[in-house]
Amino acid sequence: MKPKSISAATRPRVGKWLVTGPPLAYLLLFFAIPSLIMVLASFRTPGEFGGLAPLFEEGRLDLNLDSYVRFFSESIYAQIFAKSVWYALATTLFCLALAYPLAALIAKSGRRYRDLLLLLVILPFWSNFLIRVYAWMIIFGPNAALARTVNGVLAWFGHEPVPLLFSSFAVLVCLVYVHLPFMVLPLYANLEKHDQALLDAAQDLGANAWQRFWRITFPLSLPGVYAGAALVFIPALGIFAIPDILGGPEDSLIGNVIKQQFLETRDWPFGSVLSIVLTIAALFLAGLAACVARGNLGTPSSVKAARA
Amino acid sequence: MKKLLPLLASLLLAMPALAKDEFHLYNWNNYIAPETIKRFEDSCKCEVVQTYYSDNEELLAKLAAGAKGYDMLVPTSNAVEALIKGKQLKAIDKSQLPNLKNIDPRYLDTPFDPGNKYSVPYAMSTTIIGYNEQKMKELGLPTDTWAVIFDPKYLQKVKGRVTVLDSSSELFAAALKYLGYSANDVDEKHWKEAADAIKKGKPYWAAFNASSYIKELTVGNIWLVHGYSNDIFQANLDAQAAKRSFRILQGMPKEGAVLAVDNMVIHKDAPRPDLAHKFMNFMLEGKNSAELTNLIGSGNPNLDAVKYIKPEILKNPAIFPDKAVAAKLEQLKELTAAQRRLRNRMWTEIKAGR
Fold first, then answer.
1. Least Cα separation, residue A125 to chain B (angstroms)
2. Is the pTM above the cut of 0.90?
3. In chain A, what are the domains?
């Protein structure tokens, strides 16, 4: 009996390590180690011709807080962070507003159309991200139909024509466009599992359409909302390509400033500080979303009531 | 493992012998004529493998991060200086470069690489004004001064139709020139004045743009740019090919401008320095060098190339400036780390402020 019980206990453990080991090693290799390198770099001095100054100079370890002091002593970087958070937040909210009805529609449609609709949602991924962003340049161009229509309407109200390309508007529209599928998919995955019986029961008990949505569907979909929000918010926070390509002179976000540190300025330590702050902000927000989601994942009172 | 190591090593050593001779050129995009490559491949019995970068910073960042396998790079002078000081380059054996005599001595032995120990000039460009001829005529704007890029008096007529380069070094250089200083001025007071000039112009600019302004000029969305002479030349070629009703012209500011001399250098870890020397000598031949100028309108430091260059390009004062203009052109010098930090702080303020 004894050896058998041991092997029964070890085998699943070995299996577990075999399954979880590779992804764990992958994360360790490509997330943890680079992050640690970045943390170390943030305390070092930029090299005179790029890269980093030697770690040991004249027998003494060259580590300092200069880059952190710079970050915290100048309000401009906090302002840029605030602006980036604002853009990412707006992107998340617009994505949610657009994705929710779409995800609900897909979840409710018959099997035959469901796969087709899902395919259409992920279809844009088949062409390169940058090509899609460049396509927006053409759509927003001053001689394109969109700008002509918008400015035609504005002229009617006696307003001066506005440029669409190279504007905050263009950046926001493209951010929403690029991230929309990341909101639709988790929402769909969640909504698709909802039990129709709950809604039927609520209807029997006299709940109208709005009450059924607000007190049953929406609370139950919150995990999907949080997952989608994290998938949209975090990449939108660090993006630099879209403001670079579509943005006007005002639209420099934190991603652009970080890129500048590594390319133009060749100031790795300061770029690392900015990246660390960005990573911490993203981790904090993801953690927050996870906490809120877990809190809600238990049964909200309304659902408990509905089930009772 | 111990037994495997020598086997692996011998395999690695055998690799180049097995593969076809390859010459790895890390170059700017569209910076060599296809027929030139073909002819070099025929003469060296090797294959030219090109990879591209879009600015010196990209090249420096990649090499600083430890990229290897390139035989030859074509960086601008200030980046050459950074690469030399960063000990990234291999010294050139000039006995293998008989064609070096073709280079105009004005472009040899510069402060960036005294005695040309590591680099030889390849081609040149200037950072100037590009404009839509028709629009600028209609609006009566000058095209021979930086004032048209920085002075609100002119800019108000072209609000939203102007782009400037998304490069702090180039834009500060233009602003410093506009204010009458050297492009390489490092006085913090003068930098502040330049930053103020940039901030005054910024509300009128459509974008800081280094990637798509060629296209925007070509289709007529943008009428006035601070840009590279080669790009503006390309924009005009494209506009003519698309049969647009306007021409895109180059304007050389009377205050002077930035001259960028790109140089051939050999990477310290070049797998084939022999091919790199062959390529250098080949590109120093007038005919091969002229093909690039005819293709993209680049400036040419090769005296032997002149007879092969199209006459309309030779007449273009933005590509072949006369002595008076040439005297006002400046090559950008490398900034120190502290200066780069200061410059970046100003640049962030310029870009984030309103």
1. 23
2. no
3. 75-307 (1.10.3720.10)
B241 assigned to some structural domain? yes
Interface contact A264-B348, CB threshold 8 A? no
Tokens of B72: 């030859």
How many distinct structural domains can be found in chain B?
2
Same domain? B158 vs B28: no
Same domain, B30 and B69: yes
Mutant choice from B78, B221, B246, B347 vs A, greatest count of A C-beta within 10 A: B221
Q: Residue B87: inside a domain, yes or no?
A: yes
**Domain span at B210:** 125-258+333-352
Three-class HEC string of A185-221? HHHHHHHCCCCHHHHHHHHHCCCCHHHHHHHHHHHHH
Residue B294 shares a structural domain with residue B346:
no
Instruction: State which residue of chain A sits closest to B334, comparing Cα positions.
Output: A49
Asked if residue B206 and residue B160 are part of one domain, the reply reads yes
Tell me which chain A residues have a C-beta less than 8 angstroms from the C-beta of B220. Answer: 143
Q: Which residues of chain B have a CB within 8 Å of the CB of A142?
A: 221
Is the same domain home to B230 and B241? yes
Q: CA dist A27 to A35, A227, A291, B102, B129, Å?
A: 11, 20, 22, 55, 49
| Per-position b or e across A246-262, b if 16+ CB within 10 A of its CB | bbbbbbbbbbbbbbbbb
Are both B240 and B273 inside the same structural domain?
no
pLDDT at B223 over 90: yes
Q: What is the domain-level CATH number for residue B140?
A: 3.40.190.10
Q: Is residue B304 in some structural domain?
A: yes
In a domain, B326, yes or no: no
Q: What is the pLDDT of residue A305?
A: 46
Per-residue pLDDT of chain A (308 residues; tens, 9 = 90+): 445 555 555 667 888 888 999 999 999 999 889 999 999 999 999 888 777 888 887 778 888 999 999 999 989 999 999 999 999 999 999 999 999 999 999 999 888 899 999 999 999 989 999 999 999 999 998 888 898 899 889 989 888 888 889 999 999 999 999 999 999 999 999 999 999 999 999 999 999 999 999 999 999 999 899 899 989 999 999 999 999 999 988 889 999 999 999 988 889 999 999 999 998 988 888 788 778 777 665 544 445 444 44
Contact between chains at B334 and A76 (C-beta distance less than 8 A) = no
Please check the confidence at residue B12 and state whether its pLDDT lies above 60.
no
B147 & B226 share domain: yes
Tell me whether residues A257 and B348 touch, CB distance under 8 A.
yes
In degrees, to the nearest 5, what angle opens at C-alpha B162 toward C-alphas A161 and A248?
Answer: 70
Say yes or no: ipTM exceeds 0.90.
no
User: In Å, how far is A202's CA from the nearest CA of chain B?
Assistant: 52
C-alpha closest to that of B222 among A145, A167, A155, A165: A165
Q: How far is CA A48 from the centre of its chain?
A: 36
**3-state SS assignment for residue A257:** helix
From start to end of A217-303, where are the E strands? none
One domain for residues B96 and B30: yes
Mean pLDDT for the stretch of residues B73-101: 94
Q: Count interface pairs A-B at CB distance under 8 A.
A: 105
